Amino acid sequence: MLDIDVFIEKIRKKSRLIGIDPGRKRIGIAISDENKIVATPYTTIIKENYSYLISQIIKIIEENKVDGIVIGNPINMDGSEGPSSQSAKDLAKNLSKDVTKNITLWDERLSSQGAFNLSNELAVNSSKKVKKLDENSAQFILQGVLDYYHKKNT
Predict the structure, then answer these.
(1) Per-residue model confidence as pLDDT tens digits over 77-116
(2) Is the dihedral of CA 7, 10, 11, 17 positive or negative?
(3) Alpha-carbon distance 89 to 83, whole Å?
(4) Cβ atoms within 10 Å, residue 51
(5) What is the rounded distance in angstroms from the CA atom of residue 58 to the CA atom of residue 144?
(6) DSSP 58-123
(7) Is 44 in contact with 135 (CB distance < 8 Å)?
(8) What is the β-pairing status of strands 16-21 and 26-32?
(9) Whole-number Å distance between alpha carbons of 81 and 103
């Protein structure tokens, strides 16, 4: 697991990133364009077990020529880390062993709320909002990193 600035140095200029909104059962996935400008919701993986999750992430990485993974870190509003944050760190550590070394954590406070609010603004009906919430949250997380990336590289 890499510090965000080290992560940015290690990824190739023309490559995609994926964002992951980790949950116990539902794992939201978003993907960037190769210029790292826009994050797009991609899919939600229903986690049957760790092996299945790894196989799905590897498949996405191979199909889309992904160079790095951003995992949302659900830090508490007061800045402390709870059980969900520890789970995100464990996922990052495991993925860095099993998938790629180019992994970073990104503070995801308010990402689910932000994704839900964006759906409200787009007048998306409630059942679609809930169905797409995980991948929209992943998009919100990944877009934060893409914006940071462009600030560092301009």
Answers:
(1) 788 888 889 999 999 999 999 998 999 999 887 554 444 4
(2) negative
(3) 10
(4) 9
(5) 23
(6) HHHHHHHTEEEEEEEE---TTS---HHHHHHHHHHHHHHHHT-S-EEEEE-TTHHHHHHHHHHHTT
(7) yes
(8) antiparallel
(9) 19
Cα(13)–Cα(57) distance, rounded to whole angstroms?
A: 21
User: Are 20 and 72 a contacting pair, CB within 8 Å?
Assistant: yes
For all residues of the chain together, what is the average pLDDT?
Answer: 87
Instruction: Kindly tell me if the per-residue pLDDT of 27 is higher than 50.
Output: yes
Task: Report how far residue 17's alpha carbon sits from residue 47's, in angstroms, rounded to the nearest whole number.
Answer: 21
Sorted by where each starts, the structural domains of the chain and their CATH numbers stand as: 4-152 (3.30.420.140)
- Using alpha carbons, list the distances in angstroms from residue 152 to 5, 9, 14, 81, 136: 9, 10, 16, 27, 24
Q: Tokens 């789970």 correspond to what residue?
A: 87
